[in-house]
C-alpha cells in the first residue's frame, strides 16, 4: 500500500507540473506509440506470451482544442524471436463550438528480435476514418478528424547499449485522405477561418529517434525519461479554391518532445503506467492537427 501511495503521489505531482509546461506543438502521426518503439518493452512479456493493454489519454491541442482518446492493444510473442502487436485507437476533439468523436486507426506490427540487443519492426497503420468529418455540410479541418485517413507503412529498429535504449523508425503514407477543408469556406467571424487549409491534403512521411534511460526508484516503480525527436520529411501540400496544388510552407521540419514514463508493477502479471509528454521544439506549420502542447496517458496492462 505504501508503494502504491508513492506511485499515486508521483503521478499527481507530474500532472500538477503539466499545468506549467504548456507550450506549443507536439507532432506525432501515431507511430511513436507503437509497442516495440516504447521504452522498456523488452521485459513486457518475457515470462508470459500474451499481453493486453488498455489506456486513456488527454491532451491540449492547437486552436483551443482539447483531445481525448483511448485504445486497446494485444501483444503476442511467438517463440524467442518473433512477435506481433494489434492496436485499436479512438479520438475525440472539442473546442470552438465543435465536438467530434470516432475510431482512429488499426495498427498491425510484426517484430523480430535478432538478439538480446537488436530488434526490427515492420507494420502498418490502417485508417478507420477518411478524415472527412464536416459540420453543417462544410468540411472540418484536420484538427477535428479522428485519423489522418492515410494507410501508412511503419518500419523501425531498436538497439540497447547497456541500459540506454535507442529506437529509429519511419512512417510513410502510402495513400492520402479525403479531407476537403478550405478556410475560405468559413465566414471571417469564425474561429475556423484561421486554420490551415487541407483540401486534397498530401501529407509527407516522418522519421523518429527515441532515446530512453530507465531508472528503478523502487522495486516496483520505474521512472523512464525519454527524448523523442520527430522530423517531418517534406512540406505537405493542399489544393486551393482555384484547384491549384500548393505547398504548405514550413510544415517540413523538426519536433523535439520530452516524455517521462512512470511504471508501477502491481504484481508479475499486472501493471499501471503514467506517460506524459511535452514539446521543446516545434514545426512552424502543423496542418495535420496532431499538435499537443502536453499529453497525459494512463495505461493498465495484464500478462497471461
From TrEMBL:
Origin species, per record, is: Chryseobacterium carnipullorum
Q: Which UniProt keywords apply?
A: Signal
Q: Which domain of life is it from?
A: Bacteria
Signal peptide residues on this chain, from the entry's feature table: 1-23
What protein am I looking at? Transporter
Amino acid at each position: 500500500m505504501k508503494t502504491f501511495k508513492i506511485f499515486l503521489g508521483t503521478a499527481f505531482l507530474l500532472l500538477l507540473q503539466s499545468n506549467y509546461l504548456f507550450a506549443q506543438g507536439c507532432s506525432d502521426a501515431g507511430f511513436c506509440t507503437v509497442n516495440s518503439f516504447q521504452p522498456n518493452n523488452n521485459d513486457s512479456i518475457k515470462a508470459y506470451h500474451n499481453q493486453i493493454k488498455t489506456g486513456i489519454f488527454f491532451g491540449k491541442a492547437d486552436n483551443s482544442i482539447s483531445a481525448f482518446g483511448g485504445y486497446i492493444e494485444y501483444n503476442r510473442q511467438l517463440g524467442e524471436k518473433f512477435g506481433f502487436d494489434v492496436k485499436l485507437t479512438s479520438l475525440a476533439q472539442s473546442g470552438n463550438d465543435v465536438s467530434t468523436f470516432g475510431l482512429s486507426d488499426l495498427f498491425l506490427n510484426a517484430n523480430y528480435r535478432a538478439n538480446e540487443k537488436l530488434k526490427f519492426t515492420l507494420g502498418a497503420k490502417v485508417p478507420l476514418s477518411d478524415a472527412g468529418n464536416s459540420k453543417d455540410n462544410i468540411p472540418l479541418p484536420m484538427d477535428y478528424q479522428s485519423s489522418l485517413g492515410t494507410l501508412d507503412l511503419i518500419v523501425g529498429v531498436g538497439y540497447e547499449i547497456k541500459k540506454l535504449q535507442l529506437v529509429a523508425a519511419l512512417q510513410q503514407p502510402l495513400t492520402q485522405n479525403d479531407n476537403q477543408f478550405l478556410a475560405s469556406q468559413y465566414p471571417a467571424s469564425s474561429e475556423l477561418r484561421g486554420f490551415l487549409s487541407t483540401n486534397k491534403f498530401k501529407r509527407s512521411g516522418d522519421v523518429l529517434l527515441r532515446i530512453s534511460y530507465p531508472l528503478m526508484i523502487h522495486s516496483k516503480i520505474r521512472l523512464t525519461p525519454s527524448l523523442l525527436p520527430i522530423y517531418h520529411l517534406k512540406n505537405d501540400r493542399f489544393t486551393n479554391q482555384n484547384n491549384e496544388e500548393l505547398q504548405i510552407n514550413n510544415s517540413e521540419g523538426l519536433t523535439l518532445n520530452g516524455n517521462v514514463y512512470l511504471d508501477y508493477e502491481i504484481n508479475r502479471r499486472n501493471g499501471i503506467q503514467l506517460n506524459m509528454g511535452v514539446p521543446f521544439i516545434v514545426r512552424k506549420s502543423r496542418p495535420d492537427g496532431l499538435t499537443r502542447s502536453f499529453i497525459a496517458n494512463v495505461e493498465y496492462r495484464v500478462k497471461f
